[in-house]
Amino acid sequence: VMNNAFSPNGDGINDYWVIRNIELYPENEVVVLNRWGNEIYTMKNYSNTWDGSKLVEGTYFYILKVDICDEPRKLTGYVTIVR
Questions:
Q1: How far apart are CA 51 and CA 49, in angstroms?
Q2: Which of 35, 32, 41 is nearest to 62 (CA)?
Q3: Residue 60: which region, alpha, beta or left (left: phi > 0; alpha: psi -120 to 50)?
Q4: Which residues neighbour 70 within 8 Å (Cβ) at sequence distance 6 or greater?
Q5: pTM of the predicted model, to two decimals?
Q6: What is the C-alpha separation between 20 and 23, in angstroms, rounded?
Q7: For residues 37 and 12, what is the distance between their CA atoms, to the nearest angstrom?
Q8: SS3 letters for 13-73?
């Protein structure tokens, strides 16, 4: 389950984009795109550390690549940064 919004404002609450149980899929890859389809963040072995640094408030598209039961899967959706 992915949080669809986070507020990276340095208050220690909801400052990172959290994908629950991502540690169960260590061979994962996260790609975040802006509204024009440009990659703005990519991380292999993502571990809930993205804070949306240097990005403006808005909604971004994500692609999460994981292997589930040895089958590659792509999960997609939107995440919103609230400043």
A1: 6
A2: 32
A3: beta
A4: none
A5: 0.92
A6: 8
A7: 30
A8: CCCCCCECCHHHCCCCEEEEECCCCCEEEEEECCCCCCCCCCCCCEEEEEEEEEEECCEEE
Instruction: Give residue 62's identity as a one-letter amino acid code.
Output: Y
Two tokens at 75?
């999960």
From first to last of the 83 residues of the chain, give the pLDDT tens digit. Answer: 788 999 999 999 999 999 999 999 999 999 999 999 999 999 999 999 999 998 999 999 999 999 988 899 999 999 999 98
- Rounded CA-CA distance 3/50 in Å is 12
